[in-house]
Amino acid sequence: MTLHSDVAGLLAGAGILDVDVDDAVADEHVRASAYRRVVSVAASSGSRDRDRAMVATILRDPLESISKGAVVALVADIAMQATDPAEFRQWSDELLPEIDQLKVEAFREFIRRRIHDWLFHLSVEDGHLPTPAELAEVTDWMQRHLAQWSMSPSVLALVAESANAKKTRNIAKNRANSRELRTE
After folding, report:
1. Cβ contacts of residue 106 below 8 Å, gap of 6+?
2. pLDDT of 155-164, one tens digit each?
3. pLDDT digits (tens, 9 = 90+) for 82-93
4. How far apart, in whole angstroms, are the C-alpha atoms of residue 109 and residue 104?
5. Longest dimension (CA), the chain
6. How far, in Å, CA of 133 to CA of 147, rounded?
7. In the chain, is it the N or the C terminus that has fewer CB atoms within a 10 Å radius of its CB?
């Protein structure tokens, strides 16, 4: 497969007709934007059947930083739609063999950490109240995400007490004390 045929196939499969394939092949910024649109279309579909093949195709891109970004976007989009941590774990486990094909170890690890973070988030959304030790196992990014978006006073109290960064602790503390949460 060539980059041209990979990009053309991804765009056609997503029904995206307004991106010039030659431009996407020649310009990494156009290609990165196209990949983001492809994963957005895929994530919004009800079917997860083609995700692994799509990820494998994206990860063949010669610029792994572009493909990493697209896969991270897909992981986030799917996680934000997921309602069942076990279902998300199964889906993400199916992607791991493709992710392991990345040559840059830091990129593989980044995607794995992001999957771990989203699994943690989904378990919290499912009612699990994490311990300080469990909170310490997620990235600062996920701790900040919880501080900014969690609606659980218990989770916010934990983050306010145990997050790594002072700014994150303050965000959680302020939100835990906000009128918005006290009225619910």
Report:
1. none
2. 999 999 999 9
3. 989 999 999 999
4. 9
5. 57
6. 17
7. C
